[in-house]
């Protein structure tokens, strides 16, 4: 499964990069395949391990902010691995044609 999520503190002002970095650090330390862009962090793995990472990432932000917003989107497709790379490669292949 691939989960794309965004976690942000609420009530701390406009500059949230430091808080978001705490969440991304948790994802990167998980050892699961992941990718971060301007809007979301995507992480790939089995249900329990991915959801555990999301939970810990939220907790990292929550430790410094009393209120947290979480947006999550999941692609649940058993048996598929390396989806973070292969899905993008498929689109790029069509664009090259």
Characterization of this structure:
The protein is α+β, with helices and mostly antiparallel strands and 97 residues long. Helix content is 44%, strand content 26%. The chain has helices spanning 17-29, 47-62, 83-96, and strands at 2-10, 34-36, 41-44, 67-75. A four-stranded antiparallel sheet has the order 2-3-1-4, covered by helices on one side. A hairpin with a 4-residue loop joins β2 (34-36) and β3 (41-44). The longest helix has 16 residues, at 47-62. The radius of gyration is 15 Å and the shape is globular.
- Percentage beta strand: 25-35%
Alpha plus pi helix count:
3
How many E-type strands?
A: 4
Widest sheet: strand order? 2-3-1-4
Radius of gyration: 15 Å
Order of helices and strands: EHEEHEH
Query: Which blocks of ≥5 consecutive residues have pLDDT under 50?
Result: none
Structural class: alpha+beta
Head-to-tail CA distance between termini: 28 Å
- Proportion of residues in helical segments: 40-55%
> Would you tell me the overall average pLDDT?
95
Bulk shape: globular
Q: Main sheet, how many strands, which sense, barrel?
A: 4 strands, antiparallel
Pfam family, one: Thiamine_BP
Family: Belongs to the UPF0045 family.
Protein name: MTH1187 family thiamine-binding protein
Features:
97 residues, 4-stranded antiparallel sheet, 26% strand, UPF0045_domain, MTH1187/YkoF-like, Thiamine_BP, MTH1187 family thiamine-binding protein
């Amino acid at each position: 499964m691939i989960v794309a999520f965004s976690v942000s503190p609420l009530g701390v002002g406009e500059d949230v990069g430091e808080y978001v970095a705490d969440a991304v650090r948790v994802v990167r330390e998980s050892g699961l395949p992941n990718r971060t862009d301007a809007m979301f962090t995507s992480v790939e793995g089995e249900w329990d391990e991915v959801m555990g990472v999301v939970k810990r990432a939220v907790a990292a932000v929550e430790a410094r902010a009393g209120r947290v917003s979480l947006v999550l989107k999941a692609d649940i497709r058993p048996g598929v691995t390396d989806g973070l790379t292969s899905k993008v490669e498929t689109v790029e292949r069509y664009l090259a044609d």
